[in-house]
Amino acid sequence: MASVSNAGPSAGMSAEGAKVNMAFVAAIVAVATIGGFMFGYDSGVINGTQEGLEKAFNLSKLGTGLNVGAILIGCAVGAFAAGRLADVWGRRTVMIISALLFLVSALGTGASHTSLVFIAFRLIGGLGVGAASVLCPVYISEVTPANIRGRLSSVQQIMIITGLTGAFVANYVLAHTAGSSTAEFWMGLPAWRWMFWMQTIPAAIFFFALLVIPESPRFLVAKGKDAEAEKVLSRLFGAGQGAKKVDEIRASLAVDHQPKFSDLLDPVTKKLRPILWAGLVLAVFQQLVGINIVFYYGSVLWQSVGFTEDDSLKINILSGALSILACLATIAVIDKVGRKPLLLIGSAGMAVTLGVMTWCFSTATTVNGALHLDASIGPIALVAANLYVIFFNLSWGPVMWVMLGEMFPNQMRGSALAVAGFAQWIANFAISVSFPALAAISLPMTYGFYAVSALVSFFLVQKLIHETRGKELEAMEG
Length: 478
Hints:
The protein is mainly alpha-helical. The protein has helices spanning 22-32, 34-44, 50-57, 61-89, 91-111, 115-143, 149-178, 191-197, 200-210, 217-222, 226-237, 242-255, 274-288, 291-304, 309-337, 339-362, 378-394, 396-406, 413-441, 443-464, and strands at 365-367, 370-372. It has 20 helices and two strands. It has a two-stranded antiparallel ribbon with strand order 1-2. A hairpin with a 2-residue loop joins strand 1 and strand 2 (370-372).
């Protein structure tokens, strides 16, 4: 990921002695976080379209998983490559490309008439999601004052969940208006196709909004465009501060070095550093607890145990709203309670709630070839599922990204984030693709695996994760 991820304290802009133009900063952050919204929207739009995909493409359960999970391969590649591309072309330029990828994907997936074409366009969308997941937070960190950078960067997580919820709301409105996701809607086309085409609206807004914000001043200085950088910095920090900030950035770049993947190895043992293993545990187990099953397959899951499509889509919206509230609570307490306690609370809470869901699904009976929960069990499963979503978004959801951004020493941060981010998306892919087939075999067994993963994560956090609250990035040890 090259020098993108070196945007730690030394790369930030100190607000000391400067009159910050907060209106301009807020406008820039608002535009950049649309990328987080698109990240969430493009990930969540698939939830509610599976029935239409299965009918249109005659998919098996494994085929459904591949169509749903295809985006995640693109995400892994996009996240891994975005950093280097941003160092060559610029942060804003690559974000503009990601916005175009979102547009192409939205148009193509809605128009697809074969599974292969659909998968190809989902892969294209995944490249945009992966790039946005890396570059939007980096861009924000490089144009905001150091004393408020953490709070402003946290907005990204809120926007991701807001994007997911926005997709759920749009899908519900379209399906409810048409009568179902497979019913005909505008132009005689089924509603599920319009669910994908609705993405073009926020994607277009993202594209045009990016055209009016500046390039990262850190990138401009790195490319020798000091005059352009000074102009941007003067708008951000007030007249007279631009030249000073350019000098500060150039001084920080002088001591930086190009990150290398060999930094991940212990120089003595030549094995992966323990801190990287800790990061991989966070990245992979965030997916092994099955959270994206709720976001990708929520409507199918609830329909499979007796809820109507209309009610299932409403449950999706409820889960999204609870996720936003939980993330807001995390932002309020993470610097007071600490990272590790929140992870432990989340692991314990998810293990219990997933265990309850496993028990609920084990009581389901088969009616006309479909699972059905008893009237007394359905509400318990619903409450447990939403408590599970709350525990995740109070802890592993936002905290994992916070820790990955701060737990690694400066020298290896870029390489470690590239590897951890790639592992996170691959784990996401494995869980998402496997769910339809595993659920068809045994839904209780599938959720039992997620519950066991949450329990194991509790002990791994205890053993491998060290608290980073209040520590300077320069003090992190590998």
